[in-house]
């Protein structure tokens, strides 16, 4: 998905776009390696019945890498002489910010649709 223009289906926000938003924000806040990101998102959303899967997290990370929003590096794992873990950093803060603004539009629209459905069908 390109950061230039996100095509909307006119319905609710797509899962991958939602995950990419949270990945960017978590990386901005210092949670920068894949398994930690997965653990944080699972913990955050489990009470709501959503448990992101490992492949979806990594697909979203790879798309963000391809879009030039993130960069990937490697560091030595604590206590290990040779074992390395992949870490992610914001490569382009402007692109990250622009992507988040695009997704905010979809979230706002999705929120209005869900609120309408609740009001129309359950009030």
Overview of this protein structure:
The chain is 56% helix and 11% strand. The protein has a two-stranded antiparallel sheet with strand order 1-2. A hairpin with a 7-residue loop joins strand 1 and strand 2 (84-90). With 123 residues, the protein is mainly alpha-helical. The protein is built from 4 helices and 2 strands; from the N terminus they run αααββα. The longest helix has 30 residues, at 93-122. The mean pLDDT is 89. It has helices at 15-28, 34-45, 54-66, 93-122, and strands spanning 70-76, 84-90.
Mean pLDDT: 89
- Bin the strand percentage: 5-15%
Give the class from helix and strand content and strand pairing.
mainly alpha
Global morphology: elongated
Q: Radius of gyration in whole Å, from Cα? A: 16 Å
- Percent helix range: 55-70%
Pfam families: RTP (PF02334)
Protein name: Replication termination protein
GO molecular function: DNA binding
Subunit structure: Homodimer.
Task: Detail the topology: elements first, then pairings.
Blueprint: H1 15-28, H2 34-45, H3 54-66, E1 70-76, E2 84-90, H4 93-122
Antiparallel strand pairs: 1-2
Helix pairs in contact: 1-3, 1-4, 2-3
Summarize the structure.
With 123 residues, the protein is mainly alpha-helical. The protein has 4 helices and 2 strands, in the order αααββα. The longest helix has 30 residues.
């Amino acid at each position: 998905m390109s950061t230039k223009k996100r095509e909307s289906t006119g319905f609710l926000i797509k899962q991958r776009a939602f995950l990419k938003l949270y990945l960017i924000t978590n990386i901005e806040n210092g949670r920068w390696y894949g398994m930690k990101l997965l653990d944080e998102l699972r913990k955050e959303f489990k009470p709501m019945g959503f448990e992101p899967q490992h492949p979806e997290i990594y697909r979203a990370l790879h798309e963000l890498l391809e879009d030039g929003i993130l960069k990937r590096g490697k560091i030595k794992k604590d206590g290990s002489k040779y074992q390395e873990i992949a870490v992610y950093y914001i490569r382009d803060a402007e692109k990250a910010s622009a992507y988040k603004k695009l997704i905010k539009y979809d979230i706002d629209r999705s929120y209005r649709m869900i609120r309408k459905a609740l009001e129309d069908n359950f009030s």
